[in-house]
């Protein structure tokens, strides 16, 4: 069983082999016309007195030659094409392709931007089975990289050498209603956990944009929600049970080996397989979400107030417009109750102009929709946006027009929404995409530095100056600092706040050539932010979104930069002690944190 993670037989590869079926070499017939000319010359030399062949005989030989050529071409064409699926039983196959082994699988992340083929994919159902898998791998020195739901944009959990996934270890083990704590197996998904504990009146303190992550994975990469008073999600961890290659199963907490505990809370899967986690929860509450549309000038005036007076707040910037979507979430007032509000536009009216733009663009690009496609009126806004962008994803003017339609959509979608926190704090991120998200200091709640807004202005300026076909939104969120040293949000000053900014490019097509072009444009976009903004604002990428450069000099610069920000030596020391054979590692981890004996 596999949840969220894309795990499949490499059917595409199998069909690829089918189409490339080899043909037994066949002797190419000599040109009949050449044969005729040669014979005639030889006959003339040996028998000069022989009469010349008649004109009709020459014509006959010519047409016989043409006929033979056509027959040979037809035969070659027939045998060059693979048999259809319902004809594979035929005996006339010249060559039988070798199908892929049954145990070879292709594993990809959700966006399809990273994938590997592997024969080793463990899914233990119990702690004992997991311990055996890790022990055997350690003894054989074979890799079993921990991988969660496969949602990390950079595929940080993938390894062709082998992987271990805890999707079958997904139980709520214990609930302490009085202390508001829950102990769970690390393979449980966020939504599964929330559903499992809501009857006890508790929930998680904060949420990322989506709910399909496994708890072990979301904690190991330092995932976060939004709210300048709320730290990243790993701060909710009370204790962890790690299955390590060298020391077996160990439990770490603030009381038991605190130094390792703080490292392992954002251990990137390199210190042990997280088997169980005890999490501090909060009372389950209904939230009011208030969505408004603003401008950068208005945001600058109200920024401090927005950060300090709202439990959760985020900004969505629309490139090539001055629109800023502000989304605030707070508990429903016990005295006033939920706000009474009648929206000016229905949801259907809010999206209608986007449908109209899609129809207009279909005519412009002369695209006839497939009859099997879902009715346009049934599509959500993000689905319509994907279809619009797919028509011309790298044309700046087209993307800007789509962005303007999105700005209009949000203006017509202003209003309130009431629901439980796990329902409200999610966000429809759209379809497959490339994403880069950075984290950097933004002052304190009492005194915001305003660097977070300056950073956004820098991003928008480089987009417009370089005519980047940047789609919406540029998402900005905040978090209180954390004490885990491997987190981009770590700080020694307790009142620091940090801002997270994400830039994206969607992959709304399955055409490999077009996806490649979008990928190249995205990395150009990302590189501009890197060279012009990262050092200036001390920005570091999210661990699940950092991409390892192929260029050796760029890789060395990245390694040096990470060493200045994070306790790389302490992290590598813990790796040597807990996983000396590096069975939990992969190429990405080895390149980001090279050990002294790494080849």
TrEMBL record:
EC id: 1.3.2.3
The keyword Repeat belongs to this UniProt entry's keyword annotation: no
Cofactor requirements of the protein: FAD
EC category name: oxidoreductase
A biological-process GO annotation: L-ascorbic acid biosynthetic process
Every FAD-binding PCMH-type domain range: 113-284
Pathway of action: Cofactor biosynthesis; L-ascorbate biosynthesis
Keywords, ordered alphabetically: Oxidoreductase
Region feature Disordered, mapped onto this chain: 37-58
Domain of life: Eukaryota
Pfam families: ALO (PF04030), FAD_binding_4 (PF01565)
UniProt GO molecular function: D-arabinono-1,4-lactone oxidase activity; FAD binding; galactonolactone dehydrogenase activity
TM annotation in the entry: none
Gene Ontology CC, one term: membrane
InterPro entries in alphabetical order: ALO_C, FAD-bd_PCMH, FAD-bd_PCMH-like_sf, FAD-bd_PCMH_sub1, FAD-bd_PCMH_sub2, FAD_lactone_oxidase-like, GL_DH, Oxid_FAD_bind_N
NCBIfam families, A to Z: GLDHase
Name under which the protein is recorded: L-galactono-1,4-lactone dehydrogenase
Species per Swiss-Prot/TrEMBL record: Malus domestica
Lineage: Eukaryota, Viridiplantae, Streptophyta, Embryophyta, Tracheophyta
């Amino acid at each position: 069983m596999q949840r969220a993670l894309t795990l499949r037989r490499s059917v595409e590869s199998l069909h690829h082999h089918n189409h490339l079926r080899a043909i037994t070499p066949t002797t190419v017939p000599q040109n009949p016309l050449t044969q005729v000319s040669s014979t005639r010359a030889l006959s003339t030399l040996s028998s000069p007195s022989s009469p010349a062949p008649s004109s009709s005989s020459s014509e006959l030989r010519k047409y016989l030659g043409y006929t033979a050529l056509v027959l040979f071409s037809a035969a070659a064409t027939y045998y060059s094409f693979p048999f259809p699926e319902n004809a594979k039983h035929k005996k006339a196959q010249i060559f039988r392709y070798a199908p892929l082994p049954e145990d070879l699988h292709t594993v990809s992340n959700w966006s399809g931007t990273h994938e590997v083929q592997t024969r080793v994919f463990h899914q233990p159902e119990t702690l004992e089975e997991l311990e055996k898998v890790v022990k055997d791998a350690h003894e054989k020195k074979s890799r079993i990289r921990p991988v969660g739901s496969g949602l990390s944009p950079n595929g940080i959990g993938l390894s062709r050498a082998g992987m271990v996934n805890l999707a079958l270890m997904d139980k709520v083990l214990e609930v302490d209603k009085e202390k508001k704590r829950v102990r769970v197996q690390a393979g449980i998904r966020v939504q599964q956990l929330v559903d499992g504990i809501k009857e006890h009146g508790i929930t998680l303190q904060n949420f990322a944009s989506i709910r399909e992550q496994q708890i072990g994975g979301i904690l190991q990469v330092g995932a976060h929600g939004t709210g300048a008073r709320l730290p990243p999600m790993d701060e909710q961890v009370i204790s962890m049970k790690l299955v390590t290659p060298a020391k077996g199963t160990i439990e770490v907490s603030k009381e038991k080996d605190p130094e390792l505990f703080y490292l392992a809370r954002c251990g990137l899967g390199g210190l042990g397989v997280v088997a169980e986690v005890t999490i501090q929860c909060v009372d389950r509450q209904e939230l009011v979400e208030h969505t408004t549309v603003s401008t950068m000038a208005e945001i600058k005036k109200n920024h401090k107030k927005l950060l300090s007076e709202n439990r959760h707040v985020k900004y969505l910037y629309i490139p090539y417009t001055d629109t800023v979507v502000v989304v605030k979430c707070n508990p429903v007032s016990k005295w006033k109750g939920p706000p009474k509000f009648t929206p000016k536009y229905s949801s259907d009216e809010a999206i209608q102009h986007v449908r109209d733009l899609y129809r207009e663009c279909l005519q412009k690009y002369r695209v006839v929709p497939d009859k099997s496609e879902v009715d346009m009126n049934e599509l959500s806004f993000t689905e319509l946006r994907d279809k619009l962008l797919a028509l011309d994803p790298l044309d700046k003017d087209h993307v800007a027009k789509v962005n303007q339609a999105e700005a209009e959509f949000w203006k017509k979608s202003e209003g309130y929404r009431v629901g439980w926190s796990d329902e409200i704090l999610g966000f429809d991120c759209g379809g497959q995409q490339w994403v880069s998200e950075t984290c950097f200091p933004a002052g304190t709640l009492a005194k915001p530095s305003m660097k977070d807004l300056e950073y956004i202005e820098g991003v928008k300026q480089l987009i417009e100056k370089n005519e980047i076909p940047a789609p919406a939104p540029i998402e900005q969120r905040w978090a209180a600092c954390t004490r885990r040293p491997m987190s981009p949000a770590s700080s020694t000053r307790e009142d620091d706040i940090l801002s997270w900014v994400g830039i994206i490019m969607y992959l709304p097509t399955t055409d490999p050539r077009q996806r490649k072009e979008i990928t190249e444009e995205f990395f150009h976009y990302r590189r501009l932010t890197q060279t012009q903004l990262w050092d200036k604002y001390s920005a570091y990428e999210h661990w699940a979104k950092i991409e390892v450069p192929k260029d050796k000099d760029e890789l060395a610069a990245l390694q040096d930069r990470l060493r200045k920000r994070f306790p790389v030596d302490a992290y590598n020391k813990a790796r040597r002690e807990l996983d000396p054979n590096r069975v939990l590692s992969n190429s990405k981890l080895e390149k980001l944190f090279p050990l002294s004996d790494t080849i």
